[in-house]
Amino acid sequence: MIEAYERNIPMLTVGQKVQLTVRALPEQDFEGRIDWISRALDPESRTLRVRAVMDNPEGLLRAGMFGTAQIRTRGDGRAALVPVDAVQTIEGRPTVFVPSEEDGAFRAVPVILGEESDGRVEVVAGIQPGDPVVVTGAFGLKSVMTAGSRSAAHGH
Question: Exposed end of the chain (fewer CB within 10 Å): N or C?
Fold first, then answer.
């Protein structure tokens, strides 16, 4: 059983590959696949239970062992990396602003976030690595947008 973070729920599907390393056998990796995902979060830990069926031909894995599971959630392992302040919450969803076709205007793009570290966060869906995003002034654009329009003009 794997305890997955709530923020990773949109990236989990049955059939995804899992690589497991257990504390008792740190030199050995075990391969498997997700075969079940809970429909409810644990109310205390705010994690989602995920079950993976693991290859264990030598019987080395035992019930109750602790370890770390890595789940392959995207094909090439690349993600956009943006400053945390570039991400705004609009209608309950993480969102970044990107330039629109109209000069000096921006549009909101919902995104799925990955890991966060050192003031930056992975964007694993919604934009591609290298796509231009607003990194300074995103809160101001959100304020303009939520004040009434779906497109925010920015005039610096």
Answer: C
Q: Ramachandran region of residue 130, left (φ > 0), alpha (ψ -120 to 50) or beta?
A: left
47 Cβ contact list (under 8 Å, min separation 6): 3, 4, 5, 6, 41
Q: How many CA atoms lie within 13 A of 58 on its CB side?
A: 6
Please give the CATH number for the structural domain made up of 80-153.
2.40.420.20
Query: Where are the domains positioned within the chain?
Result: 2-71, 80-153
pLDDT of residue 36: 96
Closest CA to 61 of 102, 94, 32: 32
* The pLDDT of residue 124: 81
The pLDDT of residue 18:
92
- CATH for 2-71? 2.40.30.170
pLDDT, averaged in runs of 10, over the chain (156 residues): 86 90 90 94 92 92 90 67 86 85 83 80 83 79 68 47
